[in-house]
Amino acid sequence: MYCRLGALCVMVSFLMIGCGDGEAVSESGANESILLTMTDTIGVELGDSCLMFGYAVDAARTDSIIYILDMSRSKLQKYYPDGSYAGFVGGSGDGPGELSMPHWLAFFPDGSFLIQDIIDLGYYSPSGEWLSHVFTHAGNWPSDHVVTGPESFVVKWHEFVQGDSFILRKFIASYDLQGDIISEFMTDSIPVPATPETNNDVLNRSFSSHYFTADLDGNLYMVKRHTPDYRIECFDPSGVPFNTLSLDLPVVEKTAQEIALEKQHTEEYLTGMGTSNMMEWIYTPDSFREPIAGIWLGWNENLWVLRGTEDTPVFDIWSIPSGELLYTAHLDLSIPATEFLTFYINPWCEDFLAVHEDEGMVQRVILIDAEYPL
Fold first, then answer.
1. Residue 372 CB burial class (10 angstroms; 0-12, 13-18, ≥19)
2. For the segment 190-204, what is each residue's pLDDT rounded down to a tens digit?
3. Domain residue limits, the chain
4. How far apart are CA 354 and CA 281, in angstroms?
């Protein structure tokens, strides 16, 4: 999940908080704050090859090891908490346990993990030994992998359905480690190819429709994007809605620079994917900043929600599944709108990390420590 942070300073405060049936429960939001501190970085532009990233696409932090999934180098790189190199999993190839273009990473409570490659989803032991294929496929890979328990996970995926016309069916569903579907949480049927009049809507629904995460009891927490509303829909393991978490925040308009950069980035991404061979995509970004820019299951199995309206990172931390707003957290870091900051938060460590990418696409890992109130 990506968060582009701009330089314009916009102060946003809580107005009212609603959860469940929308009843206002507080006028000031959480009373306590989590202190976030940047403690170290991993990565260099030039130098030790173990500390240079080809392209880091996913990451995880535990108390003992920091994991960086490097797509370009076809490796899951490992580092100790002090930033020293601890080895790798994978390596380029097409044999069991080897990788060609990995995209996603997800850890289970026992330390075993999934790596999504371009043609399969592999399951690995805590020591990094390849155990099995969960999925094999021909390039149509799932994304946004989130663990929902000791042997299940959720992904976002799509399939093409041919009838009188072609339909792109996007869906979010849970699976077991044998690759069998458990529940479906969201589905959307999108006619393709898109007409020029509908291509913006198709792009939003196809590439950036939802953020989601899950707790370890199988409940899913989902955010519909491209809306000015701060709303998190909660679903039980069978896909039945049971709660809504919401905040009433003022709408914050994007600057002209933010809109231009988002338009450029999206259209260049589509060109790089080769889709311009089918049609010319013209993208019009939303005029407002999305109130939610990311969602994760964090320490103590609380829900961490990144606000998209702020210029420096601000998180709301909710107790789930009850839906109580516990804390806010602020990271004193501002970067130019032309650079990226991507957060990786999980329940396996009290602290977390972010990957910073500058205009030259040089990446560094930022280690972030979190100090909870006593």
1. middle
2. 988 888 888 899 999
3. 14-48+235-251+288-374, 253-287
4. 31
